[in-house]
Design goal:
Length: 366
């Protein structure tokens, strides 16, 4: 185990009955002080994995260590973790202050210590002014902060958060994402957050584990995940991606030569930088914002395809241009609207050249 590992998940399997395999042999280490996200589509096993860490579920196989201690048979309330639930549970009949104090009161913490710790937690989430209100006198974001303060007051080593912002509207969500990151940096404890929102995971976390069907497919930093997804699922799940079927026809020093009929019909096989081994069928992928559009053939670009604009969708800050190549491939290009002269005058029906750089091209072997 690495020195600063706080949570070590080892070969964890969780079955429900004989037919549901919710977590399929997951191993990963989470570091002390890290903001770690579990990301994946609905039903992929995120909550189950979090509940296993909290002690609300027992793994069918495998082991969980927290701060070096094996958690087998350690009750949830004896673990150095605290969980904030998907639908934030606060007591409606108690004031904010009483809600936050509750967890300390039930374990008999002395009154002066309770007062001091409650004050400290309320200040962390900026709720001091509202301490004497009841939850129904608060906004959604404020109620969510009460739930956070309730968890923080217990001084856990790890805070487990299951979709903590899912009940909030888009604007408030974004604001709370920034607040959560600040809070985590202030208290310095490890946060493990579950989300199915890729933007949320990318914008908040130091590292993200992408899950699908009970499996962890990739664990990496947000930039690594976005720029170097290790498989088609991750490439497609994180952000938008143009994906084409290809065939490796040769290997050169640090490069592969690929034939992808959808895009190589005009230019012939393409060479793409690739460090690992690749043979047979691969996926060729390019992010829409890395695709360029030109009226004239950009002869200096080794990857270029003639295509017709099928649709242009305007989003204010950018426009998404949907194209179809002469060989029938669908390609999307995202154009930044950097001036009021929106999307460079591109309209439906235009015949354009689509191109991109070999070094921005991804080769996906699985
Ligand atoms: N107590 C249970 N009994 C039987 N099956 C369960 C139980 N809890 C979860 N499952 C199943 O295990 C799988 C993983 O569920 P989990 O709640 O971990 O998904 P999730 O990734 O959190 O999804 P969501 O994003 O929808 O919250 C699902 O197929 C779910 O139906
Ligand atoms: Mg869930």
């Amino acid at each position: 185990m690495v020195d600063n590992t706080i949570i070590s998940i080892r070969d964890v399997v969780k079955r429900f009955g004989s037919s549901v395999l919710a977590v399929n042999n997951v191993s990963l280490d989470i570091k002390q002080g890290e903001f770690f996200a579990l990301l994946g589509p609905s039903g992929c096993g995120k909550t189950t994995l979090l509940r296993i860490l909290a002690g609300f579920e027992t793994p069918s196989e495998g082991q969980v260590l927290i701060d070096g201690d094996d958690m087998e048979r350690v009750e949830p309330n004896k673990r150095p973790v605290n969980m904030v639930f998907q639908s934030y549970a606060v007591f409606p009949h108690m004031t904010v202050r009483q809600n936050v104090a509750y967890g300390l009161r039930v374990v008999g913490t002395p009154k002066p210590e309770i007062d001091q710790r409650v004050q400290e937690s309320l200040s962390l989430v900026q709720l001091e002014e509202l301490a004497d209100r009841k939850p129904d006198e608060l906004s959604g974001g404020q109620r969510q902060r009460v739930a956070l303060a309730r968890a923080l007051v217990k001084h856990p080593k790890v805070l487990l958060l299951d979709e903590p912002l899912s009940a909030l509207d888009a604007k408030l969500r974004e604001q709370m994402q920034i607040e959560l990151v600040h809070l985590q940096q202030t208290v310095g404890i490890t946060f493990v957050i579950v989300t199915h929102d890729q933007n949320e995971a990318l914008s908040m976390a130091d590292r993200v584990a992408v899950m699908n069907g009970g499996n962890v497919l990739q664990v990496a930093s947000p930039t690594e995940l976005y720029e170097y997804p290790n498989c088609r699922f991750v490439a497609d799940f994180i952000g938008k991606m143009n994906l084409f079927d290809g065939q490796v026809v040769g290997v050169k020093e640090g490069q592969v030569v690929v034939r992808a009929d959808a895009i190589t019909a005009h230019i012939g096989d393409i060479s793409v930088p690739f460090g690992d081994e690749a043979r047979g069928k691969v996926g060729i992928a390019i992010r829409p914002e890395k695709v360029k559009l030109d009226g004239e053939e950009p002869k200096d670009m080794p990857i270029r395809v003639r295509a017709k604009v099928v649709e242009v969708v305007y989003y204010g800050n950018e426009s998404h241009v949907f194209l179809q190549s002469t060989s029938g491939a669908k390609i999307t290009a995202n154009i930044k609207n950097t001036s009021r002269n929106t999307h460079a005058g591109i309209v439906k029906g235009d015949q354009l050249w689509v191109s991109w750089c070999p070094q921005d091209t991804l080769v996906l072997t699985s």
